[in-house]
Amino acid sequence: MAQPPAKKTLSVYLYIPNIIGYFRIIINFIAFAECYTNRTLFAILYFFSFFCDGLDGWFARRFNQASTFGAVLDMVTDRVSTACLLALLSQFYSRPGLVFILLLGLDITSHWFQMYSSFLSGKTSHKDVKHTGNGLLKLYYGYRPFMAFCCVASEVLYIILFLYADAKSTSLLNTCRGILKESPLVVFMFISTLIGWALKQVINVIQMKTAADACVAYDSKRGK
Amino acid sequence: ASTFGAVLDMVTDRVSTACLLALLSQFYRPGLVFILLLGLDITSHWFQMYSSFLSGKTSHKDVKHTGNGLLKLYYGYRPFMAFCCVASEVLYIILFLYADAKSTSLLNTCRGILKESPLVVFMFISTLIGWALKQVINVIQMKTAADACVAYDSKRGK
C-alpha cells in the first residue's frame, strides 16, 4: 500500500510572527549598540521594536501562526529589553543609584512569579488572569486599553529619562525638575507617563503577592 | 519544600545576578558586554523554565532526556554545574572588586588582575573558564528549550 508523501509543514521558527520577533531582537541589538552615541536613534529603534511587539500578535492571529515558542520569545524580548534599558538608566543616574536596579528586580520578579503561577493554574499567557480578587488587577487584565496605557507609559517614561539624561548632572531629581520646566506638551507627557508607570509598579507588587499565594494554594491542593 | 520556595529561590538568583551585571555595566566600558550577559542569563533561564513546565518538570535542573553532551554533563554531574555557576558569580565579584574609578576599561582591569599574585591569577583564570562554559551552556539551553516549545505545539497537533 503506497504511503502518502509526508506533508511539508513550515518550521515554527519560520512563522511570520516569529520572524518579526527575530527582527525585534536585531533592532534592539542595534539600538543598544548605538545607545551611547546616538540617543535619538536608540529611542526610535526601541519604540519601533515596541510597535512590532503588537504587530507580531496581529500576524499570529491573521495567519493562524500562534506558537508557544513565539509567545515565550515575545515575553522574553519584552523582559530583556526593559531590563537592559533599566540597566542603562542606572548608568546615567547615579543618584539615587539603586532606583533603576530595584525597578529591574521588581519587573523580573513580578513577571516570573506571575508566569509561574499562570502555568500552575494551566493558563498559557500571563495576561489571562480571570479569577482575581483585586480591583486594580481586574481592571488591568479586564480592560486591555488600561493595560496598554500602563505598559506603554512605563516604557515611554524610561525613554524620556534616557533622552533627558545629562552627563553633567547624574541626579534623577534634577533631571525631573528640568523636564517640568519644558513645554506644556512635554510636561503633560511626563506627568501622564509617570502616572501610568506608578500604576504598573503597584500592579507588579500586587501581582507578586497574588502569584505567590497561587503557588502556596497549588501546594495545598496537591496535598503537600 | 514548597513551590513558592522554589520560585523564590530561582527569582532571587536571577535578580541578584541581573543586578550585579547592571552594576558592572556601570563600572566598565564596554558596558554593553555586561548588558548582553544580563540578557543571555534571563533569556536562557526563562526559556529553560518554560520548557521544563511544558514537559511537566518542576525544576529547570531536572533535565534527563537531552542529546547534547555538554548539557548532559552539566545536569548529570552536579559538581560540574556547581563549578560553572559558582565560577560565574565569583568572576563577576572579582571584576566588581577590582573595578577602578580611574580606568573603566575592562581589558585594562583584566590585565591588572593577571599581574597579581599567583593565587589571584589562578582564581581569575579558573573562574573565567567556568564562566565561559556556563555561557556556552546558556546558549545551548536556549536552543534545546526553544525546540521543546516547538515540539510541544506539534504534539498538541497545532
UniProtKB/TrEMBL annotation, chain A:
EC annotation from Swiss-Prot or TrEMBL: 2.7.8.11
Q: Name one GO cellular component term.
A: Golgi apparatus
Question: Which GO BP terms, alphabetically?
Answer: phosphatidylinositol biosynthetic process
Q: How does it sit in the membrane?
A: Multi-pass membrane protein
Where mainly located?
Answer: membrane
Q: Give the main EC class.
A: transferase
Q: Which GO terms describe its molecular function?
A: CDP-diacylglycerol-inositol 3-phosphatidyltransferase activity; metal ion binding
Reaction equation(s) it catalyzes = a CDP-1,2-diacyl-sn-glycerol + myo-inositol = a 1,2-diacyl-sn-glycero-3-phospho-(1D-myo-inositol) + CMP + H(+)
Q: Which organism is it from?
A: Aegilops tauschii subsp. strangulata (Goatgrass)
The subcellular location is: Membrane
| Identification of the protein by name | CDP-diacylglycerol--inositol 3-phosphatidyltransferase
UniProtKB/TrEMBL annotation, chain B:
One Gene Ontology CC term in the entry: Golgi apparatus
Tagged with keyword NADP: no
Q: Which residues cross the membrane?
A: 27-47, 80-99, 119-137
The answer, when asked if Lipid metabolism is one of the entry's keywords, is yes
What's a Gene Ontology MF term here?
CDP-diacylglycerol-inositol 3-phosphatidyltransferase activity
Superkingdom to which the source organism belongs: Eukaryota
- Its predominant location is membrane
Q: How does it sit in the membrane?
A: Multi-pass membrane protein
Q: Which UniProt keywords apply?
A: Lipid metabolism, Membrane, Phospholipid metabolism, Transferase, Transmembrane, Transmembrane helix
Q: Where in the cell is it found?
A: Membrane
Q: Which GO terms describe its biological process?
A: phosphatidylinositol biosynthetic process
Recorded source organism is: Aegilops tauschii subsp. strangulata
**What is the official name of this protein in its record?**
CDP-diacylglycerol--inositol 3-phosphatidyltransferase
